[in-house]
Amino acid sequence: MRPRHWWHPRSMRRFGRIFFLFAAGVSLLLCVAAAGFWVRSYMAWESLFWEDFPRSVGLVTSRGALMARVDDNLGHFGPFPSGPAHWSYRALPTYDLRATTTAVIYLRQTVVPGVDVGRAYMGGTNVRVIIVPLWSVVLLTALLPLSADVSILRGRARRRRLLAGCCPLCGYDCRATPGRCSECGRVFAVENAGMGV
Ligand SMILES: [Zn+2]
Which residues span the domain enclosing 185? Predict the structure, then answer.
């Protein structure tokens, strides 16, 4: 085999593929986590905030909804505890995030169904929120792993066809015309099925 430089198109495609599979793996982990939080959200209201005075940033989950919230305590008074930055976790009985948020912040529906954004200035604190259904997070993070799965299965089918002397594209038996498919016209590199094995 001739040595290939990393900038060779085939090597670049390989890097692209490795990155794609890595991203799909990360996305799969996020998908599983989101599915877990989706189920948990019906058992408890949970919040995790990074409190770094005068700002706090965090996520809240309850009854199938996920809320991201940023509080900027511009007036330097309000609910913020002063002191070093820290994580703050709380768990409460579940409640409807949309209904309770609407009571204090005007929520605006976005073009995406089920996704609401809101902004309010309360007691010197600038509050910004976005609420999304957790199932949509599960769905979105599932797209990449699913496409990776399809791509892996396609790659396997392609390789199986090549090894059997068939066209990688349409599967037509090309043993009579190696490297070219007389059915669909595809030209391809013939796989050395033996490789001394
Ligand atoms: Zn073909």
Answer: 167-197
